[in-house]
TrEMBL record:
PANTHER family: PROGRAMMED CELL DEATH PROTEIN 5 (PTHR10840). Belongs to the PDCD5 family. One of its GO terms (molecular function) is DNA binding. This is (wild Malaysian banana) hypothetical protein. One of its GO terms (cellular component) is cytosol. It comes from the Eukaryota. InterPro entries: PDCD5-like, PDCD5-like_sf. Residues 1-44 are annotated as: Disordered. Pfam families: dsDNA_bind.
Length: 128
């Protein structure tokens, strides 16, 4: 009853499960560490560039925004970094300029909320 094909399939399946759960596979852990290191370095470069672009007050305001709405702050940072890379910024961004940029972004992305009320009708009610 020892089928070599069946045993081979079992071995492959066992290796797949071990790789999936990270058991006995040190290469997977090293790869994750490398990815985390690359992410950390990219974030450090990003923060360094922002510190060169923004004034102290603007950096503080952006940090406060990031506490409340991280995705909005990330979007503003992306806009600022893109402008700096394209050479559109001639001096450090002041707090007033950051506020005007935030207002422009808010006007572009303002969401209209719509509320619809649907009342349930009881089975016993009569529409006559």
């Amino acid at each position: 009853m020892d089928d070599p094909e069946l045993e081979e399939i079992r071995q492959r399946r066992m290796q797949e499960l071990m790789a999936k759960h990270g058991v006995g596979n040190q290469h997977n852990g090293e790869q994750k560490n490398g990815q985390e290191e690359a992410k950390r370095e990219a974030e450090e470069r990003r923060q360094l560039m922002l510190s060169q672009i923004l004034s102290t007050q603007a950096r503080e305001r952006l940090a406060r925004i990031a506490l409340v709405k991280p995705e909005k702050a990330r979007g503003v940072e992306d806009v600022l970094l893109r402008a700096a890379q394209m050479g559109q910024l001639s001096e450090k961004v002041s707090e007033e300029r950051l506020i005007s940029l935030l207002e422009q972004i808010n006007n572009q992305t303002s969401k209209q909320t719509k509320v619809t009320i649907q009342r349930r009708r009881s089975v016993l009610e009569d529409d006559d």
